[in-house]
Amino acid sequence: xxxxxxxxxxxxxxxxxxxxxxxxxxxxxxxxxxxxxxxxxxxxxxxxxxxxxxxxxxxxxxxxxxxxxxxxxxxxxxxxxxxxxxxxxxxxxxxxxxxxxxxxxxxxxxxxxxxxxxxxxxxxxxxxxxxxxxxxxxxxxxxxxxxxxxxxxxxxxxxxxxxxxxxxxxxxxxxxxxxxxxxxxxxxxxxxxxxxxxxxxxxxxxxxxxxxxxxxxxxxxxxxxxxxxxxxxxxxxxxxxxxxxxxxxxxxxxxxxxxxxxxxxxxxxxxxxxxxxxxxxxxxxxxxxxx
Length: 291
Hints:
Blueprint: H1 10-13, H2 23-39, H3 42-67, E1 74-75, E2 78-79, H4 82-107, H5 109-116, H6 120-124, H7 130-160, H8 165-198, H9 202-219, H10 229-233, H11 246-254, H12 260-284
Antiparallel strand pairs: 1-2
Helix pairs in contact: 2-7, 3-4, 3-7, 4-7, 4-8, 4-9, 7-8, 7-12, 8-9, 8-12
């Protein structure tokens, strides 16, 4: 019985080497390689500690409400709605701190860690485009942070918002907040990926950007705030800002929020621009590792 013929690629028949894999195919290979490493790294332990804090606070609030005679949390004898508590926690714990900090610690490490550990040359010996290394590790960062962060937000929502009509009315709020968190991780991650590929000590520069530049330009009037990611991101979640505090009153004097279309265009441009710049930088840069 004869063996069926196996088709031979035209390139092989002509004696030419097979074409290299495409950018996206190579990126998914790097993604598969990097995701497991990120999930079992020390950074994931740090991320878990960050997301457990809001959950514990929400659990404490839930236990206090259940054990109280009033059946609700009261401030100055005025009941506070569960959706308002959830909004404040979203604003202070997630949007203003956890999301940018996680993007900083993961994004700056995408290339900087490989250079520091002297393993980047091994990645470049693989038959994949250099830009695919950045893209694949960036996608692994997004998957890792979303898998850990989003369940924390959902748990906080169900702990702070009362069951029944409260959950039904607040569910669209939860969906929107999950989307805003995803956008924040995408945009901040692209910026810090570029920063990690551009300078030698990106973590220090990233901390100065987050807790120096962004905090300063958002607190004062002027056009400099348009050079801040937080300026556009906060306009996507105005419901999460506390409206009955002296801080919000002070911010309302100095702050102007961009419209939703302007914020969407700006965030898209920041994401695409910095991710492309980081891929281009890694593609063209020559890495000479120190002995």
